[in-house]
Structure formats: C-alpha cells, structure tokens
Specification:
single chain, globular, Tetracycline Repressor, domain 2, 301 residues, mainly alpha, disordered C terminus
C-alpha cells in the first residue's frame, strides 16, 4: 500500500520514542480518528441545532483524537503476542519490539488522563457517560478472544461519542440520540467487517474472532444489511428531528457510496477491501453535512 504524507511525516521524526509512540497511537493513520469523530459530531449537530458552541465542538474533537489514540495503544498492548503472526500488523511498534510494553502503558495512562481532563470540562452527567466510553475503548481489544462478533462491540465504542455529545448539550438523553448511536454501531460493524476481511486467513490460524469469519460467505450481504439498517435508523432520527431535504440528500448520497463500497470489496483482495474501508471517512463527513444543513428549507423543494 502506498505511503501517505502523514506516514512520511511521522516516520521522519528523529527521536525514536516520540516516533514510535505516535505510530502506536496511529497518528500516521488517521482514518480511525475520523471514524470516531464523525458520529460524535453528528450527535453534537443533532442535539445543538443553532447556535453552535465552538468550545464544546473543540472539546469533542480533541476527545475523539485522544480516545481513538488510547484505544489503539490498548489494542496493541492486548494483541502484542498476536500481531507478530499477522502480515498486516507485524511491523507495529510493539509487535516489532521498537517500543516496550512499559512505555506503551505509560502512554496509555497519559492519554486517559488527558481524556479525563477534557471530560471534566463537561457537565456531571456527561462525565458519568465518559466512564462508560473509556471502558468500551479499553476493553474492546479483548473481545476478539471471546465473542464471534467483536465488530459490534467496537461499533458501540465508536458510537459512544454520540451519547456523550447529546448528554453534554442537553444534560440528558433522548430517543434520537439512541437512534444515531445504533446507526453508528451498525455502520461501524459493517465497515469493520470489510476491514476484517483482509485478515481473515491469519485470524483463522491464530484463533482471533471476527464478523468476517462469523458471516462466512455471506460477509458482504451482511455488510449490506448493516449499512441499510444504519441508513434507516438515521432516516428515523432525521424524521424525529424535523430535518429536511439536505439531510435526505445526504442519506441518498451515502447510500450510493455504500453500494460502491460493496462493489469494490466484492473483489476480495486486500487492496480492494482497504480502499472500501478508507472511503468511510468521506461518507461520515457527508452525513455530518446533512445534519448541519438538514434544517434548511430550500425554496425550490
């Protein structure tokens, strides 16, 4: 796979501990941050309406980056004995021995401390929700050993930002928040199944579980169903919130992009599955635009 500009930037840092710490946090591969951030901002946009509080958005943008980074460190600590056996992950810092487990644990503690400091700027209700979010992020890596569908657990971890964002704005939760959360869970389980298709053979050898294995030959049919569920839940949330034509247009375009993903992933090569997975960063941004402008009334519609 081609080297990105961010990978070259991080790779050029001359201090080994800093460089490998950033790699451990996946700063050189920001796709995960986008996938955590977009649903969180959906929740903020849906709960706030107008006007929007820039300070609150900054807290959640920083929080998404920090918690995604913490999740990556926790994941590699949990998988440090498995990653050397998988082609795609054997060069990760812990797997390759370029950083020690002790240094990684210190980094994880630092990231969780920063996340707590950010959460302390929010209301008490959201601070309580943050505890659940931290538990989901740190415990997710271990689910691959015990359940056949860890992608659903990951979806809950990625979608928890929706719940926190809604709580931060309103001091409580509403049905729309849970609908957007459930939509995120289904979307994430779908795209992470596509991602897991790249490692299916290695995972079968080492005993790691995934929905790519669980769904078997029906993997892409299941992904398509999860994507459809996600769109229907978002449509329901939009209807409850009174969102109009721009939001509907975003859903239609997102649905087209999901169909494109399924067609690309049907080649079943590592490169094709990765390309389909990566495209979700644009899909999430498209849906955010729908939430932001969904309340607009266009005179010609």
């Amino acid at each position: 796979m081609a080297t990105t500009g961010m990978e070259r930037l991080v790779g050029g840092i001359p201090w080994p501990l800093v460089r490998e710490s950033l790699r451990l946090m996946r700063v050189d591969r920001p796709i995960g941050t986008w996938l955590v951030l977009w649903p969180t901002l959906w929740g903020l946009a849906a709960a706030q309406g107008e006007p929007r509080d820039p300070a609150l958005w900054l807290v959640f943008i920083l929080g998404s980056f920090v918690m995604r980074s913490a999740g990556c460190v926790a994941n590699d600590l949990a998988d440090r004995k498995f990653d050397p056996l998988v082609e795609r992950t054997r060069q990760r810092p812990l797997a390759a021995g370029r950083i020690s487990p002790r240094a990684a644990l210190v980094l994880l503690t630092l990231l969780l401390t920063i996340a707590l400091a950010l959460a302390l700027t929010l209301n008490p209700f959201t601070l309580q929700l943050a505890v659940g979010g931290a538990f989901l992020a740190v415990s997710y890596p271990f689910t691959k050993r015990f359940i056949d569908f860890p992608q659903f657990y990951m979806g809950a971890a990625f979608g928890w930002g929706v719940v926190m964002a809604w709580g931060a704005v309103t001091g409580g939760l509403a049905v729309e928040a849970w609908m957007i959360f459930a939509a995120t869970l289904a979307w994430a389980a779908g795209y992470d199944t596509v991602y897991a298709m790249m490692d299916r053979e290695d995972d079968l050898k080492i005993g790691v579980r995934s929905t790519a294995i669980w769904f078997g030959r029906y993997d892409l049919a299941a992904v398509g169903m999860l994507y459809l569920i996600s769109l229907l839940l978002l449509a329901g949330a939009g209807w409850h919130l009174g969102l109009g034509a721009p939001f509907l247009a975003a859903l239609v375009l997102a649905g087209g992009q999901m169909i494109w993903q399924l067609r690309v992933a049907s080649r079943r090569t590592r490169e094709a599955c990765f390309a389909a997975f990566l495209s979700n960063r644009w899909l999430g941004g498209l849906l955010l635009a729908g939430f932001l402008w969904g309340g607009l009334t266009l005179p010609w519609l």
